[in-house]
Design brief:
This protein is an alpha+beta fold and about 350 residues long. About 40% of the residues lie in helices and about 20% in strands. The protein has one domain. The protein is built from eleven helices and 13 strands. Strands 1, 2, 3, 4, 5, 6, 7, 8, 9, 10, 11, 12 and 13 form a 13-stranded mixed beta sheet that branches.
Length: about 350
């Protein structure tokens, strides 16, 4: 176990950006200032009690949503909204978020829609706030739209909930003749997953391979409580040292999307349960070998964390990824402790 922690420490020191100021007070101040700019109609759209069931409702398909759309914000409010997004995540996470929103412009062209089409619209993304920021009562906010979900919860003055998180891209690689041609937003997620599965020997692959057919969708979809019945795959200790580095680089690719404080909170959970409890599972066509252009699915699964990656739709050019905290999606574990102490 000590060897794993040393490996983890060395790798994450290399990948982790310099720490910023603690996020809780900054986020509370930014949300408070943002909400003050809302008129009455905007408040009705954007604000919900923290205990409203709407907090658990999210979609990654282009469907109607509740909340305040960026389309219904003035330019200054749109800037404030994106400043809040930038505050909550790393530079990498912010770049992926804005690129996913911009992918709606690609889909307009790819689907031959007119320039004023609203079904594919880069500002058709919704901000929703649950409760109002304070240090004693729970509150939170989310950003949700096509292929995008960021969900944050603050309990007793500390931002402790940062999942579910969903990032997707259609197309995965832009091939139509547009300024974004060649763009692949989730490139590292794809390349590191393939690098890991292709490094496995036959005995290791027997453990890792759960199916020779990739599913058409992530298993957990958008359910309130994520659960996969069996923890299948190759355990972390069964990987070579080189493979463990690839595994951790893949894990880091997902966690590095968050503000460093939130990333470190998730890493602390992983360290407590132990890296040896994590498994890597793969599903996909391996004839003659795993590679781009074929359906691919993998997951990283442990007692506290589930990460899923799927690229099978649209001839394996449509990617979905999700991060679920199995102990505290929507901040549920800290919330339960808060209500228990209040009682």
């Amino acid at each position: 176990m000590k060897k794993y922690l040393l490996l983890l420490t060395g790798l994450f020191l290399a990948f982790t950006p310099p720490a910023r100021e603690p996020i809780s007070k900054e986020m509370a101040a930014a949300v408070t200032a943002f909400i003050k700019t809302f008129d009455e109609e905007q408040r009705k759209l954007a604000l919900y009690p923290f205990n409203d069931n709407e907090r658990y409702v999210w979609y990654y398909t282009p469907v109607p949503r509740k909340g305040l759309s960026m389309k219904k914000m003035n330019p200054d409010q749109q800037k404030a909204a994106m400043a809040l997004v930038k505050l909550a995540m790393s530079e990498q996470g912010y770049e992926k978020t804005t690129a996913i929103m911009d992918m709606e412009n690609v889909l307009r062209v790819q689907e031959n829609r007119p320039p004023n089409d609203t079904h594919r619209d880069p500002i058709n993304y919704f901000f929703t706030f649950f409760g109002e920021p304070n240090s004693k009562e729970p509150w939170g906010w989310r950003l949700n739209g096509h292929h995008l979900l960021w969900q944050f919860s603050s309990l007793t003055g500390k931002v402790s909930g940062m999942t579910p998180t969903f990032l997707g891209s259609n197309p995965d690689i832009v091939r139509v003749d547009v300024p974004q041609k060649g763009k692949q937003i989730l490139k590292k997620e794809a390349e590191l997953g393939l690098a890991l599965v292709n490094s496995l020997n036959s005995d290791q692959l027997t453990m890792a391979l759960i199916s020779e057919t990739s599913p058409q969708e992530i298993f957990t979809t958008n359910v309130r409580k994520a659960s996969i019945e069996k923890m299948e795959g190759i355990p972390f200790p069964k990987l070579t040292e080189s493979q463990q580095k690839t595994f951790l680089a893949l894990l880091d690719t997902y966690l590095n999307n968050y503000h460093v404080t939130l990333k470190n909170q998730q890493m602390d959970k992983l360290k407590k349960v132990g890296l040896d409890k994590l498994v890597f599972a793969w599903a996909g066509d391996r004839q003659p070998g795993f590679g781009p252009g074929k359906g691919q699915y993998y997951r990283i699964h442990g007692p506290t964390l589930l990460i899923e990656y799927d690229n099978a739709q649209n001839q394996a050019n449509h990617t979905h990824t999700v991060v679920r905290d199995l102990t505290s999606d929507f901040g549920e574990d800290v919330l339960a402790e808060h209500y228990k102490s209040q009682h």
